[in-house]
């Protein structure tokens, strides 16, 4: 066999192997978390309420309990489109995905905690794994308007976004990591886990201490909404929908250290002013769940906690007239006064 034929054969085998690997990756990731949320979106075309946010919404918004509180019934009930470990960019994309697939809600519920509404989104391509991988395959070049990449990473993004084995590499690694953790736990005390993952991991998402939180609060009182949040609110407002921005329930320690402070009060006042042009109501639900036993970890409500919160939220929002403004709802909706 000539050298040329050997090279052609080797290239063909390599190409076939790459095609096979990409096909396997596509099959293995067809039920990834973002795709499950997207499928739920398509199945919720008749929903009159959609809830958006990261894991505090994904775990904390109970569709059935909300419907019960709001007096809604299928198929015009609520759809939870919260996506764990997501940024505000993915949340904007899920809103647009819902609109493009025939979901026409009357109300958009947008849950957050801490500084998510004003924190700019800056990524590297190494960050675009796990649930962030949807930035590769849902309106990828539209989404690029709302987060920054270095010039080097921008070139990488363009090269990687169309290739499943690159864009879904994090989902495959996650399966390996789950296996690794399971093997490491052999003959060891069981680690506490919940439906969102390993409970200890979520303590890393809180501020280190009250002083760091104060500094971040003071630095955030003069900054605008993140561009993706502003665009989400603008598109919702332009369609004439009612928008409710929810300060999600937090454990007692989180509230005492961070929220029951003058600097957080100043930040919330700043947020209210930023929401006013979009006619968005602001719901302070941070202290609605007083019993810390109703949290699965440092951030996420348990199933019972989510049901209690969601039913109360449904009662509140189900009784409100449409087109409320952030200022007109301040007293009845805020839940408690700030120091």
In terms of topology, how is this protein built?
Layout: H1 3-28, H2 33-42, E1 49-52, H3 55-60, H4 63-70, E2 78-80, H5 88-100, E3 107-112, H6 134-137, H7 140-143, H8 151-160, H9 164-167, H10 169-184, E4 193-194, E5 197-198, H11 210-220, H12 227-238, E6 242-247, H13 252-259, H14 262-275, E7 280-284, H15 303-318, H16 330-333
Parallel strand pairs: 1-2, 1-3, 3-6, 6-7
Antiparallel strand pairs: 4-5
Structure description:
This protein has 339 residues and is an alpha/beta fold. The protein has a domain at 33-124 and 197-333: Rossmann fold, CATH 3.40.50. It has helices at 3-28, 33-42, 55-60, 63-70, 88-100, 134-137, 140-143, 151-160, 164-167, 169-184, 210-220, 227-238, 252-259, 262-275, 303-318, 330-333; strands at 49-52, 78-80, 107-112, 193-194, 197-198, 242-247, 280-284. A 5-stranded parallel β-sheet has the order 2-1-3-6-7, sandwiched between helices. Strands 4-5 form a two-stranded antiparallel ribbon. Strand 4 (193-194) and strand 5 (197-198) form a beta hairpin. Helix 11 runs parallel beside helix 14 (262-275). The radius of gyration is 22 Å and the shape is globular.
